[in-house]
Specification:
By secondary structure, the protein is an alpha/beta fold. It has 2 domains: about 5-105 and about 185-200 and about 215-275, Rossmann fold, CATH 3.40.50.300; about 110-180, no CATH class. Helix content is about 35%, strand content about 25%. The chain has helices at about 5-10, 55-65, 95-100, 120-135, 140-150, 170-180, 200-215, 250-255, 260-275; strands spanning about 10-20, 30-40, 45-50, 75-85, 90, 105-110, 185-190, 220-225, 235-240, 245-250. The protein has a 6-stranded mixed sheet with strand order 6-7-8-3-9-10, with helices on both faces. A 4-stranded antiparallel sheet has the order 2-1-4-5. The longest helix has 18 residues, at about 200-215.
Length: about 280
């Protein structure tokens, strides 16, 4: 296999990537991600775990192209190293180029279901990204796409005409998943998609994402705080601690031979929960 073919198989690549926030405060200007190295191949799902403040959400925002956004102090800045998404270097990318690439990258932000447009129906929320790109897109075709996606996230078609406030939190999150996939992205970034969701349906939310990822073969980076649920969606894991990736690879390999104390403690905690 040629080098070019191998490179084209890599959807996301971070090399010695460091990210910080542009803030007037010295406290919040510190490096949030420090020297991260990772690769996500097309068709691969990488789960990222770590404690609060470990940098996992900042890494997710960068991969989702929510980086170096002028005037937004919540947007991380690439401070060092490089990040390529679908073959494009993100650092210093022009606004138009970023907009074009964003169409190929789905982003499910934290508690995305809580940020649906309240005055739009479920159908309108799902297909809104299509009309943001092409106002002349056929309405009937868009409706068919919405119906297909709603079915894919296991919600009844009768909900197409429902308003967000009529849905449960878990249902709104499924609608948000459908919306993030409406442009058929090559990469999906989901930042803690089960945050704030009732524990009884968290596994179902992750299952929906994993099934759609396998069916459509897109690359995915899923941030989750629920380590116990990781095995149900993937066997590839990255562990972050204080801005660094301290373990990455197949789950069993990461925990069977940990080289960082945090990974060891995490593995012991997971083992104790499984035995209980």
């Amino acid at each position: 296999m040629s080098r070019r073919t191998l490179d084209e198989d890599i959807a996301v690549k971070a090399s010695d990537l460091s990210l910080r926030y542009n803030s007037p405060s010295q406290i919040t200007r510190t490096v949030a991600v420090d020297g991260a190295d990772l690769e996500i191949r097309r068709g691969e799902l990488l789960a990222v775990v770590g404690e609060t403040g470990s940098g996992k959400s900042t890494l997710a925002r960068a991969v989702a192209l929510q980086v170096e956004v002028r005037g937004d102090v919540r947007s991380p800045i690439i401070h060092g190293g490089s990040l390529t998404v679908l073959g494009h270097e993100v650092r210093g990318m022009r606004r138009r180029a970023r907009a074009r690439l964003s169409r190929r990258v789905g982003y499910l932000r934290q508690e995305a279901g809580q940020h649906l447009a309240p005055r739009l129906s479920v159908e309108e929320n799902i297909i809104e990204p299509i009309f943001q790109i092409d106002e002349r897109f056929d309405r009937h075709e868009a409706g068919a796409i919405a119906a297909t996606l709603l079915d894919a996230v296991h919600l009844p078609l009768s909900m197409l005409s429902a308003m967000p406030h009529e849905l449960s939190k878990g249902q709104r999150q499924r609608v948000a998943i459908a919306r993030s996939l409406v442009l058929e992205p090559d990469v999906l970034v989901a930042d803690d998609p089960t945050a704030g969701i009732d524990v009884t349906v968290r596994g179902q939310i992750l299952d929906v994402i994993a099934r759609l990822q396998r069916r459509r073969s897109f690359a995915a980076l899923i941030v989750t705080a629920d380590l116990a649920e990781v095995r149900r969606i993937t066997d590839t894991l990255a562990v972050m601690h204080r801005g660094r990736i301290v373990g990455i690879g197949p789950i069993d390999t990461v925990f069977d031979d940990p080289f960082h104390p945090y990974v060891r403690r995490l593995g012991e905690s997971l083992g104790a929960r499984v035995e209980a």
